[in-house]
Amino acid sequence: MKRIVLISIICSLVFGGSLWRDDTPSPYSPGVARKEGDIILIRIDESNTATQKAQTDLAKNSQIDGNISWTDVAQAISNPQSTSGKAGLTARNSFQGSGTTGRSSRLQGLLTAQIYKIDGNQFYIRGTKSIMINNEDEEISIEGKVREEDLQPDNSIASSLISEAVLKIKGYGQVATEQERGFFARLLQWLF
Is 171 inside any structural domain? Predict the structure, then answer.
């Protein structure tokens, strides 16, 4: 046993190296994603709400008053130089309009992504998850950039910290097909 310890000490002095390299993670802390191919856990918690409201009230009144009699009309036709009657006109225009639009969405879940490119302290990530339930496929995908300092010690990150994030959810199957408008409905909408 003493010979093994002595040989180990001599080898370490001769080769002069450490048991741990600089690119090796510490055995005392969890491995943090640092290189291409490493996996990151994304905590998706997205909530978006948008509301827009508009209201318009327009009114315009124009009025011209006067009076005219049939005698004055006959006299004006026979002798246009001697018109003494009055004429009148009343016009009114009004418009009222209002509109409201709103949209709300919420998405929560967990998704893993892989680092596919590194640029300084920024990691380019992308990941896809496919789920099949009762012959219905649902695919969730994400892509974006993550800063190294935003990663948690357990290699997770909130989706709100991903820059240039593209998050897509697609559904395939009978339910998704039934929600699409048919050919004739699309044709009628195009015509009218």
Answer: no
Q: For residues 172 and 134, give the distance between their C-alpha atoms in angstroms, rounded to a whole number.
A: 11
The single residue listed with the structure tokens 């009343």 is 90
Residue 60 in any domain: the answer is: yes
73 within domain boundaries = yes
**Calpha distance 138→176 (Å, rounded):** 10
DSSP 114-130: EEEEEETTEEEEEEEEE
CA of 162: how far to CAs of 9, 57, 105, 127, 144, in Å?
Answer: 48, 44, 19, 13, 6
CA distance linking residue 57 with residue 34, whole number of Å: 60
What count of other Cβ atoms lies within 10 Å of the Cβ of residue 10? 10
pLDDT at 164: 93
Query: Which alpha helices (DSSP H) does the chain contain, by range?
Result: 2-15, 70-78, 174-178, 183-191
Number of folded domains that form the chain:
1
pLDDT of residue 85: 52
pLDDT digits (tens, 9 = 90+) for 31-40: 666 788 889 9
Q: Whole-structure pTM over 0.70, yes or no?
A: no
The verdict on residue 107 lying in a domain is: no
DSSP E strands in 18-121: the ranges are: 39-64, 89-119
Print the domain residue range for 73.
53-100
| β-strand pairing of 39-64 with 156-158 | parallel
Q: What distance in Å separates the CA atoms of residue 43 and residue 46, rounded to the nearest whole number? A: 9
